[in-house]
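Q: what sequence does this backbone want?
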């Protein structure tokens, strides 16, 4: 049985990747290593938590000794590294947490993998999950980011992710560690922490609270359904060429204000409220410092070389997402009250 370590598997994207791998690859044993920060939620993994090919490990990637012992003990064959501090606004308020987890944490994992695999790289892979934000910001008419676009990060979050990408490449170039990187655009879908734009606004529409739009709402993001990202990760993990980088995106650019208006229309409709009810909740607020104007992804490489493209049409994914949050108000409630943080104690400690 191959042993695959997925870091950050209790988070938004990681939980989709863990569920995909546990269900699809019964000949893999999936280890989910997660610190369970505010963003980690084991309730996201209920459907697979008792699967025989799944193990949860609570741990911190910034703890170098713990990480090296874990790798020595388990002798993982592959690593899919998603654990990170992921929210741009938090990185502006507290950059050091991002520097520790995203840079030092990634370096600890690289060192541990190198130590157990050195001289035996055949069949091994260190896969680093990154973001389109490392490329910086595009003007309105600029061509989309390609894998050759020079790095130009602006926020502490994107700078820390850029640093981790550079480290991963350096370990490939210097030591021959088998690595691959992908850089993805904004994900949306079930289980996203309601600090991010879409779940925050859905929750606020439900509770008749203001929808905070930064600046004039003219910033543009490319949106991809999270399960399409998980499929892309599966594809790169199994078919990606070592040492390469793959951009992943939805070819689906939206100005924030237009996206919020669409969200209002769909959410009001699903709540059986008259059209336009929540329009009054839109509230323009102070812009994010250093707010990147536009991200857009050219995903031709992964499409032509590995055959991946998004399967979920935006209208379908968007309606499914709104429905999921409305149908899962308990999940939203547990997250907003903090109750979800007791799940680890209930599930793993009290049972022992
Ligand atoms: P998230 O914040 O929802 O989840 C991050 C997970 O990492 C959480 O479960 C958290 O507990 C865990 N974690 C944080 N610090 C840790 C540490 N020190 N040790 C162990 N675990 C730790 O993030 P997400 O949105 O799912 O993003 C996952 C990855 O994908 C990140 O690397 C992010 O940079 C990247 N990414 C995200 C998006 C997006 O739109 N969300 C897009 C492109 C790339
Ligand atoms: O592009 C990929 C990145 O997408 C990932 O690497 C990050 O981990 C992820 O958080 C996301 O970053 P963004 O900053 O783009 O996502 P966020 O949901 O925070 O914001 C989306 C856009 O909406 C952005 O232009 C800022 C704006 N915004 C955000 C919030 C939270 C608002 O206008 N109001 C808000 O309240």
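A:
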């Amino acid at each position: 049985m191959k042993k695959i370590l997925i870091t950050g598997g209790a988070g938004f994207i990681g939980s989709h990747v863990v569920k995909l791998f546990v269900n699809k690859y019964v000949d893999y044993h999936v280890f989910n290593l997660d610190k369970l920060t505010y963003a980690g939620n084991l309730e996201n993994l209920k459907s697979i938590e008792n699967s025989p090919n799944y193990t949860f490990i609570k741990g911190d990637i910034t703890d170098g000794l713990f990480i090296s012992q874990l790798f020595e003990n388990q002798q993982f064959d592959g690593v899919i590294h998603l654990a990170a501090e992921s929210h741009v606004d938090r990185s502006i308020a507290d950059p050091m947490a991002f520097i520790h987890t995203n840079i030092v944490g990634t370096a600890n994992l690289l060192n541990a993998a190198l130590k157990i695999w050195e001289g035996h790289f055949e069949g091994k892979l260190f896969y680093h999950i990154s973001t389109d934000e490392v490329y910086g910001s595009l003007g309105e008419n600029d061509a989309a980011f390609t894998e050759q676009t020079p790095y130009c990060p602006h926020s502490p979050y994107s700078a820390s992710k850029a640093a981790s990408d550079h480290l991963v490449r350096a370990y490939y170039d210097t030591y021959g560690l088998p690595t691959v990187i992908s850089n993805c655009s904004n994900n949306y879908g079930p289980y996203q922490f309601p600090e991010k734009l879409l779940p925050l606004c859905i929750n606020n529409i439900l509770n008749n609270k203001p929808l905070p739009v930064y600046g004039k709402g003219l910033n543009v993001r490319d949106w991809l359904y999270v399960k399409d990202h998980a499929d892309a990760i599966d594809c790169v993990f199994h078919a990606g060429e070592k040492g390469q980088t793959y951009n992943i995106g939805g070819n689906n650019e939206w100005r924030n204000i237009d996206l919020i208006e669409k969200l209002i229309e769909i959410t009001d409709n699903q709540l059986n409220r008259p059209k336009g009810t929540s329009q009054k909740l839109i509230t323009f607020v102070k812009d994010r410092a250093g707010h990147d104007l536009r991200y857009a992804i050219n995903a031709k490489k992964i499409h032509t070389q590995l055959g991946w493209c998004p399967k979920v049409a935006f209208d379908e994914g968007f309606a499914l997402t709104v429905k999921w949050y409305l149908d899962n108000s308990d999940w939203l409630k547990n997250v907003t009250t903090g109750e979800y943080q007791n799940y680890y104690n209930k599930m793993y400690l009290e049972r022992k």
